[in-house]
Amino acid sequence: METVRRSATRLADGREILWFDEPGSPPRDPAGLVDRRDLPRVTPASQLRFDPLAGEWVTIAAHRQDRTYQPPADRCPLCPSRDGKLTEVPSPEYQVVAFENRFPSFGSAPGAPVPEPAGDAPHAESGRCEVVCFTDDHDTPFARLPARRVRLVLDAWADRTAALGARPGVRYVFPFENRGAEIGVTLAHPHGQIYAYPYLPPFPQRMLAQVAAHREATGENLFDVRLAAERAGERVVVAGEHWTAFVPEAARWPVEVHLYPHRPTPDLPALDEPQRAEFGTIYLDVLRRLDALYDDELPYVAGWNQAPVLESDGRSDARLHLRLHSIRRAPGKIKYLAGSESGAGAFISDVLPEAVAERLRGR
Question: For Zn(2+), which residues are the binding ones (predicted)?
Fold first, then answer.
């Protein structure tokens, strides 16, 4: 496996930033990576509060109300710093960068010590939120990146998963991308985020509880059982030697695609070279089919579910997979989470999963 070139420094307010460059790229001169802004620090004031009836943690992050919201392209904070405009990325160009979010949902102030876990109660300061910029081109979405750039993004995700998972108090690392104004994206530049949670979030917690119960009852891994069933079924969208993308049998969303590696793999750092090499081709194929579904860029949320950090949270049973869903149910129509979904937690889908898979295969 070729080595990605990695450079790191600190922004003007002390936050960490890392550049990821393709193998063979020239080394970056540290003198050209200096943040010259006069940037005041934003002190996170997040709290974790436990809802005893739901059995879930809720993060209160009131300081995020003042975060940057949909600036014009010429004031984008994720573009490179050039032509006299200083941004979050202090270089005139970049391939992929990752840096601490200036307005994080949780995490400590830059340079502050991370508290050691104490008892069962998580600390908001133990988490971390990072931004990952997929390209320095403001107008090139993920679906139009070359496969080699997607590979670099994948390697960056794996790097950050390993680093964040090693931080004291972190229990789950979740890389994701929100795309489209309908989703609520606040910055148009192609980017994603990584949340390093100081607790196990509800959705992976429920999944892993189901997997543990199935193993107890049958001795089999439920992720493996479901993947085998989907690969043999009628909802496959794209399949390669190492990955399969399919619409799940019980899809909650109007458009929903899951992407699994064939080899049981716990997390992004555990992906081998053949898996990493093929991922870009398969994922770009999926994204382009999705954009062709309604002849417009599809708003979506795509996130990596992977193994939790702790064995006690079910790490050995977990299987890496990407889940992508869209709230668009037809041209100009959005699936809103209304009474049943928001109030009762019961999803009702207006679209047949098999029909969605057939339409995507035909694109």
Answer: 76, 79, 138, 189
